[in-house]
Task: structure prediction
Amino acid sequence: MRTVYEVRCHEMGDDSDYLIKSFHTRREAEAYIRQRNEQHPQDELYEHWYVKRSHQ
Result:
């Protein structure tokens, strides 16, 4: 079993939650979210991107 770090999106409008992309390290996943939030700051009004540790 290996650990992966999923970048997930929770949308406030319809309460959906889905996988965006998986990474080998938490640092990579958090950097991906930071970069995305810098490029699209207006999306933070209705989307919450977060990291979830998962085992595969």
